[in-house]
Specification:
The complex is a heterodimer. By secondary structure, chain A is α+β, with helices and mostly antiparallel strands. In chain A, about 20% of the residues lie in helices and about 15% in strands. Chain A has a domain of about 100 residues: Alpha-Beta Plaits (2-Layer Sandwich), CATH 3.30.70.3270. Classes of the chains: A alpha+beta, B mainly alpha.
Chain lengths: ~180, ~375
């Protein structure tokens, strides 16, 4: 006797939704909880290493928008000294071509993604602002050495208890979960 | 004697010569308690449904405002109340104003006969369950009025659907109630509760299923929420409503769910009866359990088509309700001496066989539902 035709589908559906009660929710409560982004994210901004930069301006030439403005003068040892290195991130489309083009790995994409500004002039970054700092970390885009050091991307859908996930609790879940993610 | 009558007598004895004032005060106290219970429980239900629905859909639900988001319905209520009240230019203004009242007041009236405890009932009418059936049908008039007064095609379609749905599902609901009444031998809600040494969900499983599905359709909850099907007729009868009037509809809708949860708990789950805990707690536990099942069904089942809805009522629930009524009547007539647990077993067998037989009616081809 086949029970497929006797309304068993309804019961099966009810069981499926009931099982969902015991799965951890996929909601990310954004300002408190943050996912670890992809290791090769082309984040909001660039990170510039002044000691590696030779001032060759390959990045400026490769930029489709012409966002990178670089000015140099010739130094003592017949090298270029960078006077001005400005990126207009307001017009940047984060294609990453400047990072790929840089022959000396002096430029990297950033990992941050919440760098909105209140003023238009604030999105034009000077060379002091482009330096590496706590809030401005390089991403592994086109930089395999950096990529190897970064933590793996985390999505709550693939939540694993071994990788720092916590046990599900019924309603207090929102408070216990996600600290330091 | 109910607690309220006792309060009234106490007041009347305290102020001789002012019996009318004692009556008025006792009545106002009763109404305020019922209204407060309704409003608070509706707010709790809205929060509870959103949280539980969220968990069914592996979301969190609202959890920002207050502990676990408990104040979210209050914020929603304030938002709705502060909205502009818009009346359609070519609508019927009087009826447009009247419709929310007609929808909401019957819901409030149902609570007059809901037994919260042994004597905690507003009035212990001797025709309590008939009163509930009579009063709860009035809401359909209000919904139809709203659809008509809005002068909107979607609202009218929704109103027509409501009337058809209400008329169709009233029959199996009443027939399954008669099964309960036969077994109790009384229409009074208090006596219905007191006679349930074994909850009627065990004694009449088929009647419970029919009653539950029928009330689900009457309170227009998913999967029978055709009248406010968002994807088909936008919002149904309250498409032209906003502000306070919409809040009345909203309150009426959840009040309906609360009222029917109370009725289901009273008729089939043994009402306030239960060990250890005080009666009111048992009653609330049962009400919330019924509401959780309703939310569970909403989270699972897709909406029925109109013809499926009608077919389910007339071809499915109604014949089953009639057969259920005959079985119960025969058992009450001839088998009243046998042990109730044997009756439980017999009725479960009957319920299983009938559900199997009737589910055959609705499934003709593999996956293709014909009604």
């Amino acid at each position: 006797m086949k029970f497929e035709r006797y309304g068993v589908g309804v019961a099966k559906g009810m069981v499926v939704t009931f099982k969902h009660l015991f799965r951890p929710p996929i909601t990310v409560q954004y300002p408190e909880e943050k996912l670890i982004v992809s290791r090769r994210i082309r984040g909001n901004e660039l990170v510039w290493y002044p000691d590696k930069c030779t001032g060759c301006a390959t990045c400026a030439k490769s930029c489709p928008q012409g966002n990178i403005e670089i000015a140099t003068h010739v130094g003592d040892k017949n090298n270029y000294v960078v006077d001005k290195f400005e990126v207009d991130t307001g017009r940047c489309m984060f294609c990453g071509l400047c990072v790929e083009a840089c022959p000396f790995d002096a430029l990297a994409m950033g990992r941050s993604y919440e760098r909105a500004q209140y003023r238009r002039r604030d999105v034009i970054l000077s060379k002091e602002q482009l330096l590496i700092s706590d809030i401005r970390q390089p991403s592994g885009y086109a930089r395999p050495k950096i990529e190897a050091t970064l933590p793996k991307q985390s999505l709550l859908i693939y939540w694993d208890r071994e990788e720092g996930g916590q046990k599900l609790s019924w309603l207090g879940l929102s408070k216990k979960r996600g600290r330091g993610v | 004697m109910t607690l309220l009558e006792q309060f009234h007598l106490w007041l009347a004895n305290m102020w001789p010569g002012w019996e009318w004032l004692a009556y008025v005060i006792a009545a106002i106290v009763g109404v305020v308690i019922i209204l407060g219970f309704l409003l608070i429980m509706v707010l709790v239900f809205i929060w509870f449904e959103r949280r539980l629905l969220g968990r069914f859909q592996i979301r969190l639900g609202p959890n920002r405002l207050g502990p676990e988001g408990i104040f979210q319905p209050i914020a929603t209520a304030v938002k709705i109340l502060l909205k502009e009240d818009i009346v359609p230019a070519k609508g019927d203004k009087v009826l447009h104003w009247l419709a929310p009242v007609i929808v909401f007041v019957p819901v409030l009236l149902i609570f007059a006969v809901v037994p919260f405890g042994q004597r905690a009932i507003l009035t212990d009418l001797n025709v309590g369950i008939v009163y509930v059936v009579a009063i709860s049908s009035i809401s359909a008039v209000g919904v139809y009025t709203a659809g008509w007064a809005s002068n909107n095609k979607y609202a009218l379609i929704s109103a027509l659907r409501t009337v058809a749905q209400m008329v169709s599902y009233e029959l199996p609901v009443v027939l399954s109630i008669i099964g309960v009444v036969l077994m109790v031998g009384s229409l009074s809600m208090t006596e219905i509760v007191e006679s349930q040494n074994i909850p009627f969900i065990l004694l009449q499983p088929l009647g419970f299923v029919i009653f539950f599905l029928g009330t689900l359709a009457e309170m227009n909850r998913s999967p029978f929420d055709l009248l406010e099907a968002d994807s088909e007729i936008v919002a149904g009868y309250h498409i032209e409503y906003s502000g306070m009037k919409f809040a009345m509809f909203f309150l009426g809708e959840y009040g309906h769910a609360l009222a029917y949860s109370c009725i289901v708990a009273t008729l089939y789950l043994g009402g306030w009866q239960g060990p250890l805990l005080p009666p009111i707690i048992w009653f609330l536990i049962k009400v919330i359990a019924v509401f959780s099942v309703i939310v569970w069904m909403r989270a699972t089942l897709p909406r029925l088509r109109v013809d499926q809805l009608m077919g389910f009522a007339w071809k499915g629930l109604l014949p089953m309700a009639v057969i259920n009524l005959f079985i119960i009547a025969a058992e009450v007539l001839w088998l009243s001496e046998i042990t109730p647990w044997l009756m439980v077993a017999v009725n479960f067998v009957f319920a299983g066989v009938l559900v199997l037989l009737w589910s055959k009616l609705f499934t003709l081809g593999g996956g293709r539902v014909e009604v």
